[in-house]
Write a structure and sequence with these properties.
This is Stage 0 sporulation protein A homolog. Pfam families: GGDEF_2, HTH_18, Response_reg. Keywords: Cytoplasm, DNA-binding, Phosphoprotein, Transcription, Transcription regulation, Two-component regulatory system. The protein is of the alpha/beta class and 534 residues long. The protein has a five-stranded parallel sheet, with helices on both faces. The two termini are 56 Å apart.
Length: 534
């Protein structure tokens, strides 16, 4: 395991140097990532390095050790904090206990004592890391649980209790591949009343499932699981015409099961679908197909489409779900996905209309939903600002390929306008923040929290957007703006340095000098002298 990192904080640099030299950090399992001489600088370094341990003095300029500890405990709760100070005061110790400080060490501290403290801290860190990082045990537990998790997912899927927005997460987390592009449910029913002698019903069922997995699993990329006393297979097909071949193979499997293990097996085959969210209907059809064994006989495969085609006819009309899927793709996915979504919508929903009247209704519904999408997303497109009857009549005259091209173009146009709108929104967002800084930089209370409160957004979202658009953090931008204004005041006015500090939002002139020097490399007074001469 890599060494734990330590940040040392004390305004007396000689103290830090002594500690760094006298302690065998490597031998203790630690490495010093740096040191700071004040709480403000220390907090910046904590944000940058996120050390495992911070060892800090209490009395320091700009921000004392207790305030620093409070910030660290709030934002980095796993960081261990050690206080070492020359002040043996009850109030300090009381506050340290309140902040759950690991150790309160009084100066002067000797090397042996400090090494013992860090040895104890390392034991605690090791225990915590061991619990959190034991990936091997967690991975093994997860892999052992996968079959059960997958079976539960498949059961929930055919029950229709999986929502569209959950599918990708389940497939990823459970390492399931559904390449399709077509799917179908099989229900394998082993008769409990016709069992070979000396055969347990449960063992027979398990044997049938194993044989089914071996004979059908690989070729049809089948997902097998037990459900309500039957074996269910979710098979995958390259095209819809493969259903005939699958039916024949299932029929041969029934004969094989009877010949090899003496099981009387009936396989019900449901309708073919293109989306795994349609599998509940396929499962219902497969289960119903099994019930036809009383008419067609056992030890055979029964395809619901062949025996009851009227029960699975499709209306061909589109619905809200189909259109919402298309609009979701337009909002979130790249151009190739939008083209696929349009093609899928037209091929399997739109062009399946059985009559001219259904086609006219589908056109009306499509125009209505596209118009609503424009209104809801503040999209302005010429076609939808003119007479809707004119658009409706023009679409009725389009041939299928022309209609397909029109809808693809509209979808891509919507996508581009949404991207443009998002970009304008974030830029306007940042512009408002910059303008607020220009008008309020002299307010010493101006901070990340206050600007977010003004804009009505969270800190994390604002920080992400601001950094993405400007390349700088908001605090960095505010500091640069304030010091830039201060530099102009130093050259253009005769005001005292502490007055200028207050004018740009710093109540502590010493901290202003510290920040100014960090930005320009020289103190405010020297900056004024050098630039006045120039």
């Amino acid at each position: 395991m890599a060494a734990y990192t330590v940040l040392l904080v004390d305004d007396e640099e000689e103290v830090i140097q002594v500690i760094m030299k006298k302690i065998n950090w490597e031998g203790l399992g630690f490495s010093v990532v740096g040191y700071a001489n004040n709480g403000v600088k220390a907090l910046e370094m904590v944000e940058e390095f996120q050390p495992d341990v911070v060892m800090t003095d209490i009395k320091m300029p700009y921000m004392d050790g207790l305030e620093l500890s409070n910030h660290i405990k709030t934002d980095y709760p796993t960081t261990k904090i050690l206080i070492f100070t020359g002040f043996d005061e009850f109030e300090y110790a009381k506050e340290a206990i309140h902040l759950e400080i690991e150790e309160y060490i009084l100066k002067p501290v000797n090397a042996v004592e400090l090494m013992n403290v860090f040895a104890q801290v390392k034991i605690k860190l090791d225990q915590e890391i061991s619990e959190k990082r034991n990936v091997e045990i967690l991975q093994k537990y997860y892999m052992d649980s996968l079959p059960l998790l997958r079976a539960n997912f498949y059961s929930t899927l055919i029950e229709g209790r999986i929502h569209e927005d959950e599918v990708s997460n389940y497939l990823s987390n459970y390492q399931i591949s559904f390449t399709g592009p077509f799917f179908c449910c099989l229900v394998i029913y082993a008769s409990p009343s016709q069992i070979p002698k000396e055969m347990n019903p449960l063992l027979l069922s398990m044997s049938v499932q194993k044989q089914a997995e071996e004979r059908l699993g690989e070729k049809w990329q089948a997902k097998s699981f037990s459900y309500l006393g039957n074996t269910v297979l979710i098979v995958q097909l390259k095209n819809e015409t493969e259903i005939s071949e699958l039916t024949d193979e299932c029929d041969r499997f029934c004969k094989y099961a009877y010949r090899i293990i003496g099981a009387v097996v009936t396989v019900g085959i449901g309708q073919v679908c293109e989306d795994i969210l349609e599998l509940p209907q396929s499962y219902t059809d497969a289960r119903e197909a099994v019930s036809y064994r009383a008419i067609y006989g056992t030890s055979r495969a029964i395809n619901i489409k062949e025996i009851a085609p009227q029960e699975i006819s499709k209306s061909g009309l589109s619905n809200d779900t189909d259109l919402s899927n298309l609009f979701k793709t337009i909002r979130l996915n790249p151009a190739p996905d939008i083209i696929k979504a349009v093609n899928k919508y037209l091929d399997h929903i739109f062009f399946s209309s059985k009559s001219l009247q259904q086609h006219h209704i589908a056109i009306m519904e499509l125009i209505s939903e596209l118009y609503k999408f424009c209104i809801n997303n503040d999209i302005v497109i010429e076609e939808f600002t003119e007479d809707m009857r004119k658009l409706y009549n023009s679409l009725l005259d389009l041939e299928p390929n022309a209609l397909r091209k029109w809808l693809i173009d509209i979808g891509l146009t919507f996508h581009e306008k949404l991207i443009s709108a998002r970009s304008r929104s974030t830029k306007s967002f940042v512009s408002k923040a910059k303008e607020y800084v220009r008008n309020n930089y002299s307010d010493e209370d101006l901070s990340l929290d206050s600007i977010c409160e003004v804009l009505g957004v969270s800190n994390s979202y604002f920080s992400t957007i601001f950094k993405k658009e400007t390349g700088n953090s908001f605090i960095g931008y505010l500091t640069d703006y304030r010091t830039d204004q201060a530099s102009r005041m130093l050259i253009g006015t005769n005001e005292k340095s502490y007055i200028i500090a207050r004018n740009v939002g710093y109540s502590d002139p010493n901290y202003f000098s510290y920040v100014f020097k960090r930005r320009f490399g020289v103190s405010p007074s020297k900056y004024r002298t050098e630039h006045t001469k120039e």
